[in-house]
Automatic annotation (TrEMBL):
Name of this chain's protein: O-fucosyltransferase family protein
Pfam annotation, one family: O-FucT
Pathway(s) where this gene product acts: Glycan metabolism
Coiled coil: none
Keyword field: Carbohydrate metabolism, Fucose metabolism, Glycoprotein, Glycosyltransferase, Membrane, Signal-anchor, Transferase, Transmembrane, Transmembrane helix
Species whose genome carries this gene: Salix suchowensis
Cellular localization per UniProt: Membrane
Membrane topology listed for this record: Single-pass type II membrane protein
């Protein structure tokens, strides 16, 4: 009986082990089936996502091509995109660089007022282009009557000046280090060009100096190039420099816009450049309307500037030749004769009128 019980017990234990093992296999089979189903589901989702993204990309590509044509009147993403693009400033396209054999480096020190220096810069760019040299950004006059310490980049947009002319002439902000050392050692040539010279003067006189010394400094620039009898390309380049390359800095342009806006808000206005400042009268020797004390002051000033060549000047003779500016009173008479409304705003675009309060009142009397 005892032996039989053990046998039956072993059979039951064996059946239990078989059930456990069999149950494990079933569980493993179920798990493997579930994992395969999950894998298939994941693959379907991944493929669907890829297909959807592909369709989106193709639709966007077709929209860029056909959207402006077919959907012009539809309020869609294409029209919104166009609005956004127009608000972005257009990229500035720079002209291609002009490639040429460099014959040397031209340094320039301008003299005179801003108008004279601006005209001189136009001349110097044209000369540098014609001689195939590299121009160093011109230095502005700091010793004139105005005593203005401004550098080129304080007045003009220097980067625009350089890049806008790159298809004509190479312009540098400063000399290369090797040549700067030569200049410090005095190994360069400096001169004042002959006034009103034609381009052949620069070809036969200045170009050989550039080829010999590599660096030439022109220390005077006012009226150093003739106005007439020059190649048309030179004249065109002068105009291009003046009206395109010499652009004021953004701060100066903004100030100008503010002044004009204020004047317009107050009604019609007239801008007048009298040219009746102390330095102009001293330089020209025009003393008509000045008392003896003012005449003496203007004469002393003329002799104080050694580069002003004319010293002994007959004021009445110059006036008869039409080489003197109108006095403030004469200017007021001209404006009145032209029928200018007495109530119009007059913006004096010049320095202080010489003669002080008396001259100011004489000008204003005709509009009061």
């Amino acid at each position: 009986m005892l032996k039989m019980w053990k046998t039956e017990d072993s059979v039951e234990e064996w059946e239990m082990k078989v059930k456990i093992i069999g149950g494990g296999k079933v569980d493993k089979l179920k798990t493997s089936v579930v994992s395969r189903s999950s894998m298939k589901l994941w693959m379907i989702r991944a493929i669907t996502t890829v297909l959807l993204w592909t369709c989106v990309v193709h639709l966007l590509a077709l929209g860029e091509i056909w959207g402006p044509r077919l959907l012009k009147s539809w309020p869609s993403c294409f029209s919104n995109q166009d609005v956004e693009l127009t608000s972005v400033p257009a990229k500035v396209v720079l002209p291609p660089k002009r490639i040429y054999k460099n014959n040397g480096y031209l340094m320039v020190s301008c003299n005179g007022g801003l108008n004279q220096m601006r005209a001189a810069i136009c001349d110097m760019v044209a000369i540098a282009r014609y001689l195939n040299v590299t121009l160093v950004v011109p230095e502005l006059d700091k010793t004139s009557f105005w005593n203005d310490p401004s550098e080129f980049q304080d007045i003009f947009d220097v980067d625009h000046f350089i890049t806008s002319l790159r298809d004509e002439v190479r312009i540098l902000k400063e000399l290369p280090p090797r040549l700067k050392t030569r200049v410090k050692l005095g190994l360069f040539y400096s001169l004042a060009p002959v006034s009103w010279s034609n381009i052949s003067y620069y070809t036969h006189q200045i170009l050989p100096l550039l080829q010999k010394y590599k660096v030439v400094h022109l220390n005077k620039t006012d009226a150093r190039l003739a106005n007439n009898g020059l190649p048309i390309e030179i004249q065109k380049l002068r105009c291009r420099v003046n009206f395109n390359a010499l652009k004021f800095t953004s701060q100066i342009e903004e100030l100008g816009r503010r002044v004009v806006r204020i004047l317009r808000e107050r009604g019609p206005f007239l801008v007048l450049h009298l040219r009746y400042e102390m330095d102009m009268l001293a330089f020209s020797g025009c003393t008509h309307g000045c008392n003896d004390e003012e005449t003496e002051q203007l004469t002393r000033m003329r002799y104080a500037y050694p580069w002003w060549k004319e010293k002994d000047i007959n004021s009445e003779m110059k006036r008869k030749e039409g080489l003197c500016p109108l006095t403030p009173e004469e200017t007021a008479l001209v404006l009145s004769a032209l029928g200018i409304d007495r109530n119009v705003q007059i913006y004096i675009a010049a320095g202080e009128i010489y003669g002080g309060k008396e001259k100011d009142e004489g000008f204003g009397r005709f509009f009061s």
